[in-house]
């Protein structure tokens, strides 16, 4: 691989990093706080490649010898194109029900319950991870007792028994460390839908916690009664934190 080709490859890789940050695709892979770092990495890669090009142009002259080749790392450098072309030409979607299925019966991710009160309103939006943490911390429901809240998540087959669950994926850094949080839907009117009605459908569901259901025996999966629900587009970002 010549130095010119190597530098062109680095410019391409860096430009793609900046592009996926600009169009929001980066949120399929990392949390929003890391997007500036990805963009900065892309700018640095492009800058280093262009700096090398400028240095070569300043050193070039009629007395120059043959074009330099880097035989030691040429083949491995081309491997950089594989993930870049995948992201550029066929950007993988955010993780969904398949990732939840892979987790199997593993206990859902339960973080520390938020200390702040629920947002005001008749049915405020609450992250699924927050509802699960609050339900696990307070068997009597705590701040959720008797309150309607709105959860946004995607439909997955119920982990135990008939019906469906509502799930989200929580990431600490990037999609590689994603862990599922889910709630069991008590949906007697079939507002969300039964088994086979379409996994990965995103819904905004107005629900009410059934106290005492987020236990170790249930894998800290609380049950919520569905009051109403509508299908929605996948939010951006699709993960919770």
Automatic annotation (TrEMBL):
The chain crosses the membrane at residues 34-54. InterPro entries: DUF1980 (IPR015402). It comes from Actinomycetospora termitidis. NCBIfam families: TIGR03943 family putative permease subunit. Keywords: Membrane, Transmembrane, Transmembrane helix. It comes from the Bacteria. The keyword Membrane applies. The keyword Transmembrane applies. The lineage of its organism: Bacteria, Bacillati, Actinomycetota, Actinomycetes, Pseudonocardiales. This is TIGR03943 family protein.
């Amino acid at each position: 691989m010549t130095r010119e080709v190597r530098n062109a490859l680095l410019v391409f890789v860096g430009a793609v990093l900046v592009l996926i940050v600009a169009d929001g695709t980066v949120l399929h892979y990392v949390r929003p706080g890391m997007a500036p770092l990805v963009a900065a990495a892309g700018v640095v890669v492009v800058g280093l490649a262009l700096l090398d090009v400028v240095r070569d142009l300043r050193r070039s002259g009629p007395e120059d010898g043959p074009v330099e080749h880097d035989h030691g790392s040429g083949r491995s450098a081309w491997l950089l194109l594989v993930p870049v072309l995948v992201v550029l030409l066929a950007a993988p979607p955010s993780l969904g029900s398949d990732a939840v299925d892979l987790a199997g019966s593993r206990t859902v991710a339960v973080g520390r319950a938020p200390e702040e009160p629920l947002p005001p309103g008749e049915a405020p939006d609450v992250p699924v991870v927050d509802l699960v943490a609050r339900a696990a911390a307070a068997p009597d429901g705590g701040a959720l007792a008797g309150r309607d809240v709105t959860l946004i998540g995607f439909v997955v087959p119920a982990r135990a028994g008939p019906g469906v669950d509502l799930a989200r994926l929580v990431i600490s850094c990037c999609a590689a460390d994603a862990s599922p949080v889910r709630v069991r839907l008590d949906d007697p009117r079939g507002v969300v839908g039964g088994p086979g009605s379409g996994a990965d459908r995103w819904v905004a569901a107005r629900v009410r916690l059934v106290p005492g259901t987020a236990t170790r025996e249930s894998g800290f999966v609380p049950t919520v009664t569905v009051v109403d629900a509508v299908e929605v587009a996948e939010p951006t970002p699709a993960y919770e934190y």
